[in-house]
């Protein structure tokens, strides 16, 4: 894989941090001069034939009260960030209806999906939007109507935490297509989002931070 400078990042060895997180030790080698290297854009790889994405970007999954306080009055609209990331045919779950004119505006700029692929799903009491989706039979039926048996659904969550992994487990039991989560195991995501753990792991590998 090439970084923006034209270097290839290769895995050389792995080191297990004391907190249990496995960190890859890497080296870099030039790739700028190799005309045979695959330079396919990452988004094109992610959108391989037969695949569509389900966006459920819910800040409540993070379990960080400080984030909710920072977002303030706009926090209920935060899930709409996924509308900008979505492509035509992708599925997006938001807690409130989206203005069709806004979706049309995104479409004119090469972004977003269509109205029939956006589900407004109010959060159930005491639950995040991700947890609500995993428990709402009508919402699951809505998803089932929009996927094909021979297709694949990639779930994009705000963070690949326990709620996101549980949602994927439920979708695998409910939908006729293959379902995958964009992200790793819940424990790995939790550790990756703890800055003190990342700093300690980088220091153990001699990586400047």
Give the helices and strands as they follow along the chain.
EEHEHHEHEHHEHEHH
- Using the CA coordinates, give the radius of gyration: 19 Å
Strand content: 15-25%
Low-confidence stretches: 1-31
Contiguous helical run count: 9
Q: State the helical fraction.
A: 25-40%
- Kindly name the structural category: alpha/beta
Backbone shape: globular
Q: Describe the sheet with the most strands.
A: 5 strands, parallel
Distance between the termini: 22 Å
Describe the structure.
The protein is of the alpha/beta class and 209 residues long. The chain has nine helices and seven strands, in the order ββαβααβαβααβαβαα. The strands form two sheets. Strands 5-4-3-6-7 form a five-stranded parallel beta sheet, with helices on one face. Strand 4, helix 4 and strand 5 form a beta-alpha-beta unit. The two termini are 22 Å apart. The relative contact order is 0.15.
